[in-house]
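Exercise (ungraded).
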Amino acid sequence: MDDQHLTGLIRRAQGGDVACFAELLDLHYDTIYRFAWKWCGHRTNAEDIAQQSCIKLARTLAQFRFQAAFTSWLYQLVIRCAQDWQRAQQRHEHDALPETEPTADDARTEDHIYLVQLLEQLDELGEGMKETALLVHAEGLSHAEAGQILGVSESTISWRVHAIRKHMNKREALMSGGV
Amino acid sequence: MKAQSCEYQLRHTVPPTPDPEARLRARRAALLEFERVHVQKDESSAAAESRAKKPARRRFPSSNTWLAGMASACLAVVAVSVVWLLPPQQRQVPLRVPVAIDLEFISEVTPQAARLPEPAPASTPVSQPPPEQKKPAPGIARVKPAPARVQEPPPEPQPIDPASLEKDQATAAEEVVVSATRVQQRILESASPLVVVETAKKRRNASESEPSNTSLEEVAVTGSRRSSRVRDWFARRASAPSSPPPGAYKEEGRDKFQHFETNPVKRVADDAVSTFSVDVDTASYSFVRRQLNAGTMPQADAVRVEEMINYFDYAWPVPESREEPFKPTVTVSDSPWGAGKKLIHIGIKGYELPAREQPDVNLVLLLDVSGSMNSPDKLPLAQRSMALLLDSLKPTDTVAIVVYAGAAGQVLPPTPVAEKDTILQALNALRPGGSTAGAAGIKLAYELAEKSFRKEGVNRILLATDGDFNVGITDTNELKSFVSREREKGVYLSVLGFGQGNYRDEMSQALAQNGNGVAAYIDTLSEAKKVLVQEATASLFTIAKDVKLQIEFNPATVAEYRLVGYETRALNREDFNNDKVDAGDVGSGHKVTAIYEITPVGSKAQLIDESRYAAREGASADRRGKANEYGFLKIRYKLPKAFRSRLLQQPILMDAGVPAALEKDVEFSTAVAGFAQLLRGGQYTGPLRFEDVMAQAEDALGADPHGYRAEFLELVRKAQRARGM
């Protein structure tokens, strides 16, 4: 899709055109969902986050000022929704949610397990690390773009990417040494 | 497992395809939200437009929207009635509708719902909407296009063919007959959210004639697998169109107001000097509005005339610098309440701090989360009000949250507003429960405020409560003195009142007055906006404290006078020059208006007979020199950090008149004063009737950018009706 079409779509949606907003949603739901899934590694949770993101998009689209790429703005929104979702989740830990994937696809299971472990480690590394890794590695954004989305400098992103790599290498060495 | 690199894994792990249903749910929810946002926007602009022309009575939507609205309303009727036709056992199923609500706000706010029992098998009044829910009232035309339609939006908005609508209904009806289960299914999938939205719409419509006291319209209904807690909450919400949901805390008739007598007419010969403290509060107006919106006349003690007057913005001239925080404007006009009488308006508008001059703010939110706050117009409204306030703060300002209920506790340490998300999270996580220990909460709040004290900034506690301090220090005086001791240390207190039935106005007023703060009563979200966003600077930044007014009337020209309102703010004559005596404060941009009604010498309107024996006044040479003055106005105030007061003074000239630019403001404030006095019994307003107030106010609407004056007209009309009953 070309930028012009997207821009027109956004502008008309901002003006209240519901058809344009629906098209915008349809165009980006996959991106949103994919990111949410990689963020939490859980399908139904990802669907929840994606839904919250869609609602938030409806609410805040008017605030998009075309100062950054729409997708960057969207990532920002999804990240915020995901974080909010997680906080809400932590407060309701007693309200147990199904832990298992109902339809775990066998072919993907190994990858999936690894991803979940990876996400856990990234979470432990500190705030912003997981988001950085996702934006840079999963979404293939530049350090500058990721920095813009996360509201930190480019060099911070570079440092984080480096720190993550260092940590993963160390961990791998430890594990292979330990076995 | 031999690990691929982190990078590789992140890039190449493929997410399972999303459930198409989940996708649809998200889409539907987002579209509903989109509609809601835009309908709201349209409504507010339409309202502004129609106000610009003439006070709005009724607005008709375009025929398209209207038709579509009717369609969705009909669908809603079908859907709801079907649900309630089913036996209770089955009824549980539709209730377990994957209806869920915007997590951000609702599920966090309504923990009580989680504790409610599951809908019991047989009769379940808790979750059963009252009968009026089943049928949207016929008069309600303004409903939005059916969301079900929106789901597959046509590329161009098309007029909806009424015939096809009928077909839709027919199909729906058929299905009812054919298979209950299928209909149920259908309801689950499409109609349920629709019902809610209709309810919300209805509420919004109704709010023109009823108090809109909850946030139902904010509810984004979405489909999701989310849990019973939300569902129960939802059921409770949906069944509460304009009153707190069943099971929520509700009390009536325990609102407490300080009793006071209306200021009498005084003879200048006996007492020529009138002294009072300013009052910038507006709580009384909101409370009165709420009562009138509910169709009842407010009790006389709830009506403080000056607070009604000061609710509105008047264009009193503003001073140029902070050094001179305000300058008084004095006008003289004829009184509409008695022939031959005159009104003297004294208007003050505080200097408005430009944004760059605004000091840092160290704010501690103190929220009552006791069980009594469990009502949509209490804690949830308070939470959302506070969230609004964050928008008016600078990123470097700090906010802390303390709650009090059975025990007081710190919820959030002082946090810079830059971390708004953190603050919102903490705020939204609050839930009502337990009894109230107001005193302990206040102490903790002051401790926090002192911990993060900003010497050059503003240190303030914002207390949100329904006024129910029933555990701990219950002695009003003890609390008051505690608050005023803290005031000396530089930590101020403002009070936001919520809810009704058990509202303790007296306590709120007492605390705010002793804490150099304002007391406001929040009945709706728009009131919260007015107080916390539009007037945020006024509520936060004091530009002058201990502001006292004193007028000495000239016995040669004035026979009698009466101060309209300010009964609870009266000061002794000797207090005026005593800097130790506390008085009201004026915030940045605050307006204060005081009105005196006077009877000039020689007027037939004089109420009190001349004394037979007292020496005739007005003959001395000394007074003759000032024969063109009605009196002399003196104002004392202190700059925020000062301990010594300053004095402003000016004569009140008989020919002061009313500058053309202020005519409407003088007239409107007079109308409000007249209305307030009528509500208090109209002891001194002669033949004045509500109709006269209305005519006068209508005449003086002016620009009315926020529609507050138009709303006032509406209130007068309601008072007229309420009295008629």
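Further reading is listed at the end of the chapter. For now, observe: Chain B touches chain A through 53 residues (CB under 8 Å). The longest helix of chain B spans residues 20-53.
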